[in-house]
Amino acid sequence: MNLKELILPYIYNLKPYSSARDEFKGKEGVFLDANENPYSSTDLAFNRYPDPLQQDLKDRISAIKNIPSKNIFLGNGSDEAIDLIIRMTCANQAGNMIVCPPTYGMYEVSGNINNAEIRQVSLNSNFQLDLPKIFESITEKTKLIFICSPNNPTGNKIDRKAIYEILDKFRTGLVIIDEAYIDFNDEPSFIFELEKYPHLIVLQTLSKAYGMASLRLGMAFAQEEIIQLLNKIKPPYNISGATQELVLKGLQDLTDIQKNIRSIQESKVELINYLIKKDFVVKVYPSNANFILVVFRDSKNLFDYLIGKEIITRYRGNVELCKDSIRISIGTKEENDKLLKNISAYFEES
Ligand SMILES: *Cc1c(COP(=O)(O)O)cnc(C)c1O
């Protein structure tokens, strides 16, 4: 892979905005450079611009993930990283990207926002990559292949051998592995393959296992030159000071995070064991994530009924290969109990 050829020339050659906080990096001093207000009008003290490159936060994430800070990009959710990756390679039909539905919808939406050519290669009936079709659909203009593992909305992990095959054979563009649900999975992350595969980008997020969706923090891990390109095109202060501060605090001690992951995993097993015994359940797909995809006998009506009971699940019956299915996020024990009671009540009434 040659980044100079892969990245759009106006991005590759872009001279980035240099913010006041880029030009002076010290923490002590009289700061009269950024037109900030010297007074904090609230007791929250957020009157100063935050660190544009989030160094303290990256150092903490680096320690947790065992990956150097220089290989980490932080975005306003991983959705920001997805957008930037597409924007710097595929915008305005300059390149095409391969996505494998049913999968996370943002790849396609971001592709469309950026007017990228999107090539869809559906997963096979086991929700695994259809390698022959993927390789067939690669063209000279293919710059990105998106792989989501564990996959959303199906919940399964993608066969590692198939991912390696793509990494090994598709060397002219970037392979993006979205690991939003990796912490619910027992397999190692692909972040440990970054040195071997300079065309790999791994996405993770604090929105799921880490329980910080509202703070909006997504991570992209890649070789340093890719990280620098992403930094160059991101809005200068894309991660707010509040987010940087609160996430650092939230990551000080991981005990509770790990405890909550375990309890979600236990609840998932309980939920699955309950559902598979019921005659109104056609199928519960295996899940390596914090949600399950379930085919019920009467999914759409059940979904509507549950909404009437103020239980909100996600109907996925309109999604290809997911006919009649509902995606259910694992809740607290009480929430799951309420869900199951209402599902049973629906089928008793109908
Ligand atoms: C939830 C999810 C994300 C999360 O994105 P954020 O913007 O970080 O909240 C990314 N990818 C997949 C597959 C997801 O399901």
- Looking at how many chains there are and whether they match, the oligomeric state comes to single chain
| Uncertain stretches | none
Number of separate helices? 13
The shape, in one word, is: globular
Distance between the termini: 58 Å
Bound molecules: pyridoxal-5'-phosphate
- SSE order, as H and E? HHHHEHEHEHEHEEEHHHEEHEEH
What integer is the average pLDDT? Answer: 96
For the largest beta-sheet, the strand count, sense and barrel status come to: 7 strands, mixed
Helix content class: 25-40%
Structural class, from helix and strand content? alpha/beta
Cross-sheet strand order for the largest sheet:
1-7-6-5-4-2-3
Strand content is: 5-15%
Radius of gyration: 22 Å
Number of strands: 11
Description:
With 350 residues, the chain is an alpha/beta fold. The chain is 36% helix and 15% strand. It is built from 13 helices and eleven strands. The strands form two sheets. A seven-stranded mixed β-sheet has the order 1-7-6-5-4-2-3, with helices on both faces. Strand 4, helix 8 and strand 5 (174-178) form a beta-alpha-beta unit. Helix 5 (78-87) packs across helix 6 (106-113). Pyridoxal-5'-phosphate (PLP) binds next to helix 5.
